[in-house]
Specification:
The complex is a heterodimer of chains A (730) and B (313). With 730 residues, chain A is an alpha+beta fold. Chain A has a five-stranded antiparallel β-sheet, with no helix packed on it. In chain A, helix 1 (18-37) packs parallel to helix 6 (142-153), helix 6 packs parallel to helix 22 and helix 8 (166-187) runs parallel beside helix 10 (211-227). In chain B, 76% of the residues lie in helices and 0% in strands. Chain B has helices at residues 2-11, 14-28, 31-46, 48-53, 61-77, 82-95, 98-111, 116-128, 132-143, 147-151, 157-160, 165-196, 200-211, 217-234, 237-250, 255-269, 275-281, 295-305, 309-312. Classes of the chains: A alpha+beta (730), B mainly alpha (313). The A-B interface holds A 50, 299-302, 304-308, 310-311, 315, 318-321, 334, 337-342, 346-347, 350, 354, 358, 361-366, 402, 405, 439-440, 492, 523-526 and B 12-15, 17-18, 21, 24, 28-31, 33-38, 40-41, 44, 47-48, 51, 57-58, 60-63, 65-66, 68-69, 72-73, 95, 97, 100.
Chain lengths: 730, 313
């Protein structure tokens, strides 16, 4: 940036650099246009947020509601009768300080819906800014960055996240910023770039599964090293030299990265725990590794499953698959640039795009099946559809690169001009014929083709256009079709799924569970995955992963018996039977669950004080009970006072998991796996204090440390940018 | 040297990259797999139009758009299955793309003329497009189908043979019931189309004709309402009064018809316009229909998704 510092007397007045203002204008114009299109959504005229977003909104608000009470949620007692909170592997970027815009907005009086929407749009724009800076960093021209950024904002990236998947943003934004910081660091290593690289890597490690990041980064870096060998070696040695000079900074960054890798490594290790299961539809079946997926599951979420060639052009006015949308200008312009010369970076964009596309196409090409078979990492991820925004970004970068070459290689000779014009007419004509075979093409598609052709002919024959005018003109032409597409698509974003009352708060304890179906929106089969948001009965399967015991009960025990049993969260038994933990006595269990005179079943090998009393009814303590009083409840902990006349078995109908521990009168007590899937504890006669606690103190410390460190890193990076540490580092 | 220079120059051309990418795609892409992936992803949405037509799901335009993305490739793969085209027609009609819907219904009709619920849907579409003349001709065709045509089974005889004989009988009986249901709807729609074209005399004649045909009581009262409406429009209140009385004498067992005539009589005696009474009895069944054998379509789909497109056909 050109800093224009004017020194007057002893005071140093720092004016805003003019280039900063230009950047700001270039960044704001497309954003304002984007906002105009989304105005009905932003003003609440239409509610956006179908598909997976309600799920994310729910999780995020659930997280903050708990955090507000001083609890970092590790266990979710409302999901499937109790489940590990991050078992679904949908890390919502809890460690991303940007997420904290939501509680801030809520405290400022925003509704949950508006706070969530504002967060999504702000994060989306962050991605846009990152892409602008990345393009600027590569091409060193503001108008090229402006053009690329405009196309990116008005592509599938700019619309898909609102309706369907916030996860697209959570994956794409750190990838974009990582490449921006990396390229900047390679050019001139600075502290701010290193901090930026660290923070984006930390975000990637703690948000969702880092597989898309690893795939994109490795492919791009390998392509770069292969194509630009010398430059890569030079950059590497420059980076090493910088790190050796700034050892303490390097060690700090390494420490942060190691720390951020702990949750994902812990998750991976725990996936071998036999207590976990994956949904049959998605899992490979019969494997002890919970997180491995089947090839069939990969196919279902691959790029050909999301779209086909027709849907990129056809029926765009009623299109439901908005994710792969990119202006038709891109295809036409790339065709017109067919006779330009490739450069090193052109090959990197092209190869990275092509390889990622081929791998993301799963079974449609032989590459993914081979990798799936031979590289274990490929068995841990299935949602290749989340790579769409990255592919769009790469395609746009390639387009910008080709357009720049086209401008530079403007033909001088008459013969060349004729040939290029003929090619342009042929390409445009073929495109029109190609579109003609489809069912319904929106008018702006044809308009774009005609405009591009006219512009290119004018450029070839007539005017000596400035490069800035050239890129601004193609931006205008390129946005014709997206404008029509957005115009048709935005009213279709209307969804009732993210309206305030669909976001259910779950932080309070109740003695009974709601019955199945309560509060569910059952009017349409589309909502089957979101029932989980509102169903606390434990009968709705909306998640991908679960705990094995619960799953077994659902499969083996008849529903009425289960329904009647889990209704109450506590039972007090005075007789019980020990059974082999490896056995599966389904008939006895069903009797226990449905008959209140039947003994409890304890699935343990050795239980001290084994008693078998004559039959007596089990008790289900409720709110007014004199047996059990709940003193404290949070999602990770429950404290109660129990008073019993003799030795009793207290069953807490929350899923059994080895991560739980119990305290009886502040002394460790053993949690018994009772009635197959639940927690039981033996209480001696008298009045006692009991506590159920989930999670090791290490987990809390780690979670809070990560939160703190990412916050510190953000602050440091922003400060380094504001200080502009160019000279300081050298 | 020369060759190296040429290679060097060519390899730097953008079009070479395009050719390379196109070649890789053409050689290695498994189109069948790619299609299967897309269809398997969308199969959840494929049932929606069927659920909607059976009134088991509310109207959701987005679901129809998803269904279109499912049925379009399916239609390309199996261009000879009229049911797929018909469902596409319904989807487009519900999205509001009437021209496209019409094209699909017509294509389905050309494939099999005896699938007259498809013909009925085409008629409904024409009615919705305000092309009453064309709709009239279509409904007329359905209304005056001969018995043999009416009882014909749309199930392919080969597929029908796969079921046990008892099931075959049930299926045929179900088919007849459905065909009669569609035919009676077509009658009402025909009268509605004639009304839109001010063909009152024809309405009266046809309504009288339909009243003499076996039908459900509520339909009989609707025909009577049509005849009465025309009478009021073209003749006098007195003749309507006389007609109502004649109806009671002729159909003493039809309670709905009795109620209708009673209401007409009391309205006329109180010198009130009986138009609102007509509105209560005249139904416009302008919803699309689908044969209850949705398995007919779904069997094919499942076979197809089971990677055996040959058996699906």
């Amino acid at each position: 940036m050109d800093n224009k510092n004017i020194t007057t007397g002893r005071k140093k007045i720092v004016n805003l650099p003019s280039s900063f203002l230009t950047h700001l204008v270039y960044l704001l114009i497309p954003l304002c246009l984007w906002i105009i299109f989304f105005w009905p959504a932003l003003t609440g005229k239409i509610f956006v947020g179908g598909k997976d977003n309600p799920q994310y909104a729910h999780w995020i608000l659930y997280f903050f509601d708990n955090l507000q009470q001083g609890v970092f949620p590790l266990w979710n007692p409302f999901h499937s009768w109790g489940c590990i909170d991050n078992l679904d592997m949908r890390f919502m970027g809890e460690y991303n300080p940007f997420l904290y815009i939501i509680p801030f907005l809520r405290l400022s009086g925003f509704s949950d819906y508006n706070a969530f929407l504002t967060y999504m749009i702000a994060y989306f724009w962050m991605g846009g800014i990152g892409f602008y800076l990345l393009t600027y960093c590569i091409f060193k021209k503001k108008y090229i960055a402006f053009s690329a950024y405009s196309f990116f904002l008005f592509s599938g990236y700019g619309i898909h996240f609102l309706k369907y998947q916030l996860i697209d943003l959570l994956i794409t934004v750190p990838i974009i910023w990582f490449f921006y910081f990396l390229i900047s660091f390679v050019e001139t290593p600075r502290k701010k770039h290193l901090l930026g690289i660290t923070i984006t890597l930390m975000l990637t490690a703690t948000t969702y599964i880092p597989f898309p990041f690893l795939l994109v980064t490795s492919i791009t870096l390998i392509s770069t090293v292969l194509i630009l060998r010398r430059k890569s070696i030079r950059a590497l040695s420059k980076g090493i030299a910088f790190l050796s000079r700034r050892k303490s900074l390097a060690i700090f960054c390494l420490f942060c990265l190691t720390l951020s890798a702990v949750p994902i490594i812990a998750w991976r290790m725990s996936s071998f725990d036999p207590q976990y299961v994956i949904e049959v539809e998605r899992g490979p079946g019969g494997d002890s590794d919970t997180v491995e997926v089947s090839q069939n599951a990969v196919n279902k979420a691959s790029i050909p499953a999301m779209t086909n060639l027709d849907e990129l052009f056809d029926n765009l006015d009623i299109s439901v698959q908005v994710m792969p949308f990119v202006s038709i200008f891109l295809y036409i312009a790339l065709l017109l640039c067919a006779f330009t010369r490739m450069r090193g970076r052109s090959y990197i964009f092209f190869l990275s795009f092509f390889i990622i596309l081929v791998i993301s196409s799963a079974d449609a090409f032989p590459v993914h099946p081979w990798l799936f078979k031979h590289v274990n990492l490929f068995r841990l991820f299935r949602n290749y559809l989340h790579l769409f925004p990255t592919l769009i970004a790469l395609a746009i970068l390639f387009l910008m690169d080709r357009l720049e070459s086209f401008y530079m290689e403007k033909p001088a000779g008459l013969k060349q001009k004729y040939l290029l014009s003929a090619w342009g007419i042929l390409a445009a004509g073929s495109s029109v014929l190609f579109l003609n075979r489809f069912d319904h093409i929106i008018i702006s598609s044809y308009l774009t083709i005609v405009s591009v052709l006219i512009f290119f002919l004018v450029f070839i024959w007539r005017t000596a256009l400035k490069q800035r005018t050239f890129f601004i003109a193609i931006t205008v032409i390129g946005l014709i079709q997206p404008f029509e597409f957005f115009y048709h698509t935005i009213p279709m974003l209307q969804s009732k799924l993210l309206v305030n009352d669909h976001l259910v708060r779950k932080t309070h304890f109740s003695y009974t569970r709601p019955e199945e179906g309560n509060g569910l929106n059952e009017d349409h089969s589309f909502h089957y995955r979101y029932k989980i948001l509102k169903d606390e009965s434990g009968f709705t399967h909306g998640g991908y992963f679960g705990l094995k015991y619960v799953q077994d009960l659902h499969q083996r025990i008849r529903r009425p018996a289960l329904q009647n049993y889990v209704k109450n969260k506590f039972y007090v038994y005075n007789h019980w039977t020990i059974v082999d933990p490896g056995s599966e006595p389904w008939k006895d269990l069903e009797r226990t669950l449905s008959d209140e005179n039947a003994p409890a079943l304890i699935f343990e090998n050795d239980v001290p004080g084994f008693v078998k009393n004559p039959a007596e009814k089990r008790l289900s303590p409720d709110k007014d009970s004199d047996i059990l009083t709940i003193n404290a409840f949070s999602v990770n902990r429950l404290a109660a006072t129990v008073e019993v006349p003799g030795e009793r078995l207290l069953v807490y109908n929350d899923t059994f998991h080895s991560g739980w521990r119990a305290l009886l009168d502040r002394r460790p007590a053993r949690i018994l796996r009772t009635n197959y899937a639940f927690k039981g504890i033996i209480i001696p006669a008298g009045r006692h204090q009991i506590e159920f606690i989930y999670g090791h103190p290490f987990l809390y410390t780690l979670s809070l440390t990560l939160l703190g460190i990412t916050g510190i890193l953000w602050t440091l990076t922003i400060m380094a940018f504001l200080k502009n540490d160019d000279q300081k580092n050298y | 040297m020369m060759i190296k220079k040429i290679i060097n120059t060519i390899s730097r051309q953008t079009w070479v990259c395009y050719v390379f990418a196109a070649a890789v795609i053409l050689i290695s892409v498994d189109r069948n797999n790619a299609n299967l992936m897309r269809l398997s992803m969308l199969q959840h949405y494929a049932d929606y139009p069927i659920q909607f037509l059976f009134q088991k799901a509310g109207h959701q335009p987005e679901a129809f758009r998803y269904a279109v993305t499912y049925y379009r490739p399916l239609e390309k793969l199996f261009p000879d299955i009229p049911d797929v085209k018909m469902i596409l027609g319904v989807c487009y009609a519900e999205i509001g793309k009437y021209k496209k819907a019409s094209r699909y219904f017509e294509q389905a009709y050309r494939l099999r003329e005896d699938l007259f619920w498809n013909l009925f849907n085409l008629g409904i579409l024409k009615y919705k497009m305000h092309l009453y003349g064309e709709a009239e001709k279509i409904f007329e065709k359905i209304v005056f189908l001969d018995n043999q045509q009416l009882l014909a089974s749309p199930f392919s005889s080969q597929l029908l043979k796969k079921y046990p004989s008892a099931v075959q009988e049930t299926l045929v009986a179900q088919n007849i019931r459905f065909n009669l249901f569609v035919q009676s709807r077509a009658r009402l729609m025909l009268l509605q189309c004639l009304w839109e074209q001010n063909k009152y005399q024809e309405i009266f004649t046809l309504a009288q004709h339909f009243l003499n045909q076996p039908d459900r009581p509520e339909n009989e009262s609707a025909y009577a309402a049509w005849a009465s409406r025309v009478l009021l429009k073209t003749s006098s209140e007195k003749s309507l009064f006389l007609y109502a009385r004649a109806l009671i004498n002729k159909y003493p067992e039809n309670i709905i018809l009795f109620r209708f005539t009673q209401q007409i009589s009391s309205a006329l005696s109180a010198s009130q316009s009986p138009e609102h009474i007509f509105q209560n009895f005249l139904t416009v069944p302008d919803q699309f229909v689908i044969h209850p054998w949705r398995e007919y379509i779904l069997i094919g789909r499942e076979l197809f998704l089971g990677k055996s497109p040959e058996s699906a056909i």
